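User: Hey, quick favor. My workstation is busy. Could you predict this chain's structure for me?
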Amino acid sequence: MRQEPKMTRRNAVATLAAAAPLVSSASAQNAAAPQGRAAAQARRPALVSPEIASDNRVTFRYLAPEASEAVLAGEWPGGAKIPMKKDEQGVWSVTTGPLPPEWWGYAYLVNGVKTLDPQSPRIKRDTAKFDSTLIVPGAESMLFAVTEVPHGTVSAIWCPSPSLKLTRRMIVYTPPGYEGGAERYPVLYLLHGAGGDEEEWTGQGRTAQILDNVIAQGKAKPMIVVMPNGHAAQSVTPALAAPAAPGTNTGQTGDASRLAPYPLFPDSLLADVIPFVEKTYRTAAGRDNRAIAGLSMGGSQALYAGLRHLDRFAWVASFSGAFVIWPGAMTAIPADSGPSGVGAGWGLNMKAVEATFPGLTQESAAQLKLFYISCGTDDGLIVSGRQFTGWLKSRKIRFIEVETPGYAHVWSYWRKSLVDLAPRLFR
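Assistant: No problem, here it is.
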């Protein structure tokens, strides 16, 4: 049997000594790359993004040395797809023209993949969509910011809903001073759109910041704002709910069947939500202290509940109301029915509208202290909205009509509408 030579202490030392230069060389090579990268990073100035200049030009920066393409995707007009340029250190950047004062969302498309801005902690959620945000300063946009004023409280409350056989979550804003006082307050029931949930108005709508600021400025009366989930099939926002079983109607499937039967939520608002709120909170009594408003789907729900129950509400408002989803109200209209095709596709069946509001007359509507309807002129719902306001005018029903050029079906318009509505309420 062949025997291997024995390793003596002297041989072992010699072997290690011979290997040492190789180990040292390899270690140096392995250390060189990290040290080189660290040196390069040390030379690179700290990234600031977004950086807002005094003239409201905004510079966006994103570090992606290996990327072959980066695009800025912003919510502002003309901001949908802005190419970015990469410098020699791998930083992609672009500077926009002056942006209008607003609370804007944005993201990056890096090699086609959506990415949030890692340099900014400001993020918003729109159902399943996430974006980074920035506030471009200005008189109106600062109403969306947290400022040095007394603050109200935002609470997530669970409300029993026997009519829907669920316990459902809603968000409630109570004004500054509510917790330590004894005063009773009027209530605004504020409803979201078909793509949203109970967190939509505080997240996207900046309701708490708007109310804090307009109350502090003396422009609006202190009020409680109740923001329920407008999807009758949902107990809570999908962001918190357990995954739904396949085929379950979550209220956000993109299928029009999610809206049927339509009256379920407006009816449960009257039967379940209002009694719970008035039992739980210090609310001022009577219809004069009760308002209802909403956007899109919520706008149609607000008018459905408010105009059919004039004994319950004295203040009724709709922003970009989706009136076409009232029972039996949707009908096709020609493609050229609106400016530049706006409104093409759907209009109102006026017989269904009359059946929806059989008791709405000039005399009955005179009970309202405020009837408010707003819509952007670039909104696809402007045509059906004008059909409804035309019907109101034919009945000599008084209301405030606000049409704003340059706005489509967007959150920047609904925040603007809330800023306009809040000071009108409970006066």
